[in-house]
Specification:
This protein is α/β, with parallel strands linked by helices and 326 residues long. Helix content is 42%, strand content 19%. The strands form two sheets. It has a six-stranded mixed sheet, sandwiched between helices. A five-stranded mixed sheet has the order 7-6-8-5-9.
Length: 326
């Protein structure tokens, strides 16, 4: 157990180090005069959480895909899409990658955020990109067993706790008795070992490493909405209206980068190893999402309905107004 926690600690340090590296003095996007034909590149900043689910943006840079579309992309490490919205609105960044819940809430507040494509989705069956795990002696073996327990998620009021609640209720448990607490993914193993939590919702590599000595209780996305959108691409409505060519170029480059990433697993795992400082043997065992630009608006609407049902959102956002496929 101590050896596993040490490895998770090393991964946590690497992830946190990367997340803390941003260049606030880097130049912002130019005035729009550059085009692929001119040979000049437009500089754009993109907020992305440094995890394997979002690795396609790094792959796109490495493979020269963004450059081919006339773009010089700088990644601004972020803790989540919702946290990137203020930077979008201030113009510090031009694009962000994150869960749909940031745009959901921005839409309800009429902040002018538009999701223009999907980024990654969970696996509809088999191993999935995240799961609920517990220690072997916890007595937690199925979703209903989580009732009355303390369960960790990295962010309250998002897809993690929402799908866990729905899965527990569907299995005959009472989700209202679950105590959800915020725990950063790299800290989940130590919190389980200390007895501070009973179960944790985590992505790979933490999911596989904890489950190897404990229990994989479920993949909540698969239990509730198989193939659920994990991450999306979004920007401001103002940028779409003021600089539509930039948004179109970025959307086209991103779609190409996602397709390339999905079709080149060896390249993708090598990029995870390089850019996320994850050991090769760990990167080789990660469950990767489906990288795809196509939005599933029907399923996103179902996710919003669940959010209203469980009180995560006060009311249903206007999906058609917030999500526009490019």
């Amino acid at each position: 157990m101590k050896k596993r926690i040490a490895l998770l600690g090393a991964l946590a340090a690497a992830t946190l180090a990367l997340a803390g590296c941003s260049d606030s003095a880097a130049p912002a996007a130019n005035d729009g005069s550059s085009t692929p034909e001119s040979g000049e590149l437009r500089e754009v900043r993109v907020a992305a959480l440094p995890i394997s689910d979002s690795i396609a943006v790094w792959v796109g840079i490495d493979e020269g895909i963004f450059e081919k579309h006339g773009l010089d992309v700088e990644i601004q490490p972020a803790q989540g899409g919702a946290q990137a919205i203020p930077a979008l609105l201030s113009g510090d960044i031009q694009f962000a990658i994150g869960q749909p819940f940031g745009p959901f809430r921005a839409g309800l507040q009429d902040l002018g955020i538009t999701v223009f494509s999907n980024f990654s989705s969970s696996q509809p069956s088999g191993d999935d990109v995240n799961g609920v795990v517990a220690l072997a002696d916890s007595g937690i073996e199925r979703p209903a067993d989580l009732a009355g327990k303390k369960v960790a998620v990295n962010s309250l009021g998002a897809a993690g706790d929402l799908t866990i609640k729905a899965a527990v209720d569907a299995d005959g448990g009472d989700s209202s008795t679950i105590e959800f607490v915020e725990v950063a993914f790299p800290d989940a193993a130590a919190q389980l070992d200390a007895g501070n939590i009973d179960a944790a919702w985590v992505p790979d590599p933490f999911q596989k490493q904890i489950a190897a000595e404990g229990t994989l209780v479920m993949h909540p996305y698969q239990q509730v909405l198989p193939g659920l959108t994990v991450l999306t691409n979004f920007t401001t409505t103002e940028l779409i209206e003021s600089d539509p060519e930039l948004v179109k170029s970025y959307a086209a480059a991103m779609a190409e980068a996602l397709e390339f990433t999905n079709e080149n697993e060896d390249v993708t795992r090598a990029a995870i190893e390089t850019h996320l400082d994850i050991p090769k043997e760990v990167a080789a065992g990660l469950t990767l999402p489906n990288y795809d630009a196509e939005l599933d608006l029907e399923q996103i609407g179902e996710l919003a309905d669940l959010a209203v049902k469980y009180g995560v959102l006060d009311k249903r956002p206007d999906i058609d107004a917030i999500f526009t496929q490019y």
